[in-house]
Amino acid sequence: MKSIENLKQTLIGRFGDQVITLAHGSGGKAMQQLIDEVILPFFGKPSDSPLEDQARLPLPQSGRLCMTTDSYVVTPIRFPGSSIGHLAINGTVNDLAVSGAQPLYLSCGLIIEEGLAFAELIEILADMAVAAQAADVQIVTGDTKVVDRGSCDKLFINTAGVGVLAVGMDSGITHIQTGDKVLINGDIGDHGVAILAARGELALETTIESDCAALTTLIQLLLAEGIPVHAMRDVTRGGLATVLNEYAQGAGVGILIDEGQIPIKQEVRGVCEVLGLDPLYLANEGKVALVVPADFAEQALQLMRSHPSGINAAMVAEVVDDHRGRVVMQSDFGGKRVVDMLVGEQLPRIC
Amino acid sequence: MKYVDEFRNGKQAQAIAKRIAELVKTLQVSKQRPLQFMEVCGGHTHSIFRYGLAQFLPEEIEFVHGPGCPVCVLPMGVVDDCISIAEQPGVIFTTFGDAMRVPGSKKSLLQAKAEGHDVRMVYSPLDALQIAKQNPQREVVFFGLGFETTMPSTALTLQQAAKEQVKNFSLFCNHITIIPTIKAMLDSPDMRLDGFLGPGHVSMVIGSQPYEFISRDYHRPLVIAGFEPLDILQSVYMLVKQLVDGRCEIENQYERIVPQMGNEVALRSIGDVFELREFFEWRGMGSIDHSGVRIREKYADFDAERKFSMPRLKIADPDAAQCGEVVTGVIKPEQCKLFGKSCTPQTPIGALMVSTEGACAAHYHYGQIEIPLSQVVSR
Predict the structure, then answer these.
(1) What pLDDT score does A346 carry?
(2) Is the pLDDT score of B356 beyond 80?
(3) Measured distance CA(B145)–CA(B161) in Å, rounded
(4) Which residue, A25, A175, B335, B362, could crosslink A230 as a Cys pair with Cβ 3.0–4.6 Å?
(5) Which residues contact B376 (CB under 8 A, 6 or more apart)?
(6) Cβ contact (<8 Å) for B53 and A347?
(7) Domains of chain B with CATH codes
(8) Residue A347: pLDDT above 50?
(9) Strands annotated E in A166-313
């Protein structure tokens, strides 16, 4: 980590007063300099051979390949606790990790708006390098484009990821059964609130930071200890409510949430109360909702709580035979209500 | 969370529910038909569904969802007017989030935004004024809507704009007022309500005094209610108690917020900026006398109605939609022919399907726990 920080400071010292121009995406000298002197030092090369148009990777000895892709367009590109750089690594890593795979390689496509300060780009690249190191993945290929001012908002990043799924790993929605328990690895809604606050449109100040983190080691811990996970999804846009609805509809089962068990920070609850938002729909970037057989639920919970990304893990719901295809919440208050898929954006109520 | 959790205590709710059930058994009328209490305000509708309050009440009591959701009663023609302003060159059109999804005759403001017009969501009219100050070369219009709850902040914003001479700012005023609307419902031949839960936040501004005619002239009880689940259950208890005692009064359950005479400062601002219109068109309820306000001559420079030309057409609701009957409590949302079929939160035909405070959206999202899987999947 220290060497990434040193590299960042050196590059900011060297390029700090410059901005990205269309020439940096033109394929000529400026682009070559950007790649060789700014991007590659952070990501490294997979081998000492000259740079080719593609990465050449060894095949796994057994198991299956897993592949995913995701684009990152968050605004602002830097927000409390994280940035688009961390997100671009962890988001794609998590999409692989929730299959049970070990993520190995990522690509990095940068779409940069002309006028972006080099210093900002360097900061984001450093964040990507730090996140990749933490998640134990290599960035092995990439692409850089620069577009006219106004054609994108500062910086968009696409990352594709490749991982290896061990023989016998086969979790998925169709394995969900009545009686299973749903676990989550910690407080919900932090990322959504951090982004809302960072946009500065609300005169609200919070100390909430994004929960952006890779989930690989947490999930691998559970698998290594023999927890027969039935299904896993990372809880991102649309929040916990959306993932549970996907489970309920995909598996044709009912899901009953116990409101009192949902881990959430008081501050996040407070923001939701003030703005009329439902925390069940708030975005997260370091959360997974696992479905496990009831017999293994307690053991899985203890394992999660022993991991730094799962200290506040909780058992939040169970799979039931009633109201098939629907998610219902037993409220603390005593009543039950349907928790539906989100329609449109979550808009605050006006009175 | 302090000052919130105390009002969401399930044990206390059970205790109140038990007392309501015992009390209602002593009423003769409830043995022939259920008592119908209308919650006037959309905020109450939302709480009732969110906390499943109907499950706490005996079957002798029914909630009827009233017209107090401002976006739900917006006529389509007004949405068309908004869009025609937003489409004029150089305009930044601002409003609250909920209003952006209400369908007009051709499209919603959200669709106008997608087509490239500058439509922005704000959380307060003061944010819109700020946008005007930051963009002096653009015309910034704020679409103001809502009852007396949101009226004071709009009024203060206009006063501020006048004081600072922000000439590129104007208000498209569609604020409405609740009292004439309650009166119109009481005058309706379909009227069969046994009592009202009065709107808490409106009352915070206007006080409890303006409701006196309801008990005096129409002999119906009203209890001004807070928005937490225990507030609502306690208010229902107070209504039943009045019926049992043979009383008919205006009572205030929400005393911690609502003063009898309302908020003087807010009322003064409203009076300075707004005056009553002769009539105002409500979606589903038609034209109601003196139920809307417009901007006084004194603030004419900030009046979007005088600044912009707009179609001002009256657009009838689709024939099959029964928004009017739902909004006055004559039928329940799922009894409407379009409910859950062509009219859903994704494709709303009536505005009651748009806001989370609308009765139809609330029924759709929170109601009907036992829907067969086939219907869920085919949506």
Answers:
(1) 56
(2) no
(3) 18
(4) A175
(5) A249, A325, A326
(6) no
(7) 1-379 (3.40.50.11740)
(8) no
(9) 181-184, 231-234, 254-258, 288-292
- A111, B231, B363 from B23: Cα distances, Å: 68, 18, 28
Residue of B nearest to A202 (CA): B123
- pLDDT above 50: residue A324: yes
In a mutational test of the B interface, the residue from A265, A343, A345 whose CB has the highest number of chain B CBs within 10 Å is A343
Model confidence over B72-97: pLDDT tens digits?
Answer: 888 889 999 999 999 999 999 999 88
Interface confidence, given as ipTM, is: 0.82
Full set of structural domains in chain A with CATH: 2-165 (3.30.1330.10), 173-338 (3.90.650.10)
Chain B contact set for A333 (CB, 8 A): 8-10, 13, 51-52, 229
Q: pLDDT tens digits for A24-41?
A: 998 899 999 999 999 999
- For B358, the enclosing helix (H) or strand (E) is none
Contact at 8 Å (CB) between A256 and A320? yes
* Region for B2 from its dihedrals, namely left if φ exceeds 0, alpha if ψ lies in -120 to 50, beta otherwise: beta
Separation in Å, CA A5 to CA A1, A42, A48: 6, 10, 23
Is the per-residue pLDDT at A210 higher than 60? yes
pTM of the entire predicted model: 0.88
Q: For A305-315, write each residue's pLDDT tens digit.
A: 999 999 999 99
Q: Which of B98, B364, B372 is facing A347, going by the closest CB pair?
A: B98
